[in-house]
Write a structure and sequence with these properties.
The protein has 182 residues and is of the alpha/beta class. It contains 7 helices and 7 strands. It has one domain (28-181): Glutaredoxin. The longest helix has 13 residues, at 169-181.
């Protein structure tokens, strides 16, 4: 079942890319975004990672961001690791976190992105050289983003409509700004 605003997020402990334990229950002083991606060589996923990296300086003091992929560490290193990523990355090839957070699959969402977002795919592949490679997990996985407060209450659960759909950056900025002033 999909998570909803004001629900408590499922708690987990898992190893990140640097072999550190990430514990969602660990105390923190700012909101956290869990960004669920598809597989590591997904061009649209890498374009989104690029977008988050470009906005790191504007986001780093207001929100922590965790990137979760359904690929093993080696594939993340090979594809996503080409970028200089300042965020924590969690490989989750057994997809336990995807199940815990009800991250979905959709063949319709897969097809929709290839027709509606072909210019973004072209940009990802040609301009940024995010070439598709091996697929780990479901090719029709739909991304999802969850913004949690410091007590792990869901501020926003965003379930994408297609394989390239993530919460807009403007919405992240608004949520964080309202959280800081609220």
């Amino acid at each position: 079942m999909r998570l909803k605003k004001n629900e408590m997020a499922p708690i987990f402990k898992i190893m990140d890319m640097n072999n550190n334990i990430f514990d969602l229950n660990k105390s923190r002083n700012k909101p956290l975004m869990l960004a669920f991606f598809r597989y590591a060589s997904c061009p649209l996923c890498n374009l989104r990672v690029h977008e988050l990296i470009k906005n790191y300086d504007n986001l780093k003091d207001s929100i922590d961001i965790i990137l979760i992929f359904q690929s093993p560490k080696e594939k993340i290193d090979k594809y996503v690791g080409k970028q200089n990523i300042p965020y924590v990355i969690i490989p989750n090839p057994d997809k336990t976190l995807y199940h815990l957070y009800s991250v979905e699959n959709s063949w319709f969402g897969f097809a929709k992105a290839w027709t509606a977002k072909i210019s973004r795919v072209f940009k990802a592949v040609v301009k940024h050289h995010y070439h598709p490679g091996s697929v780990e997990g479901e090719i029709h996985r739909i991304p999802a983003d969850f913004i949690l407060d410091t007590n792990n209450k869901v501020l926003r659960a965003f379930y994408g409509r297609d394989i390239g759909d993530h919460i807009p950056l403007s919405e992240i900025y608004t949520l964080v700004e309202n959280y800081e002033t609220g």
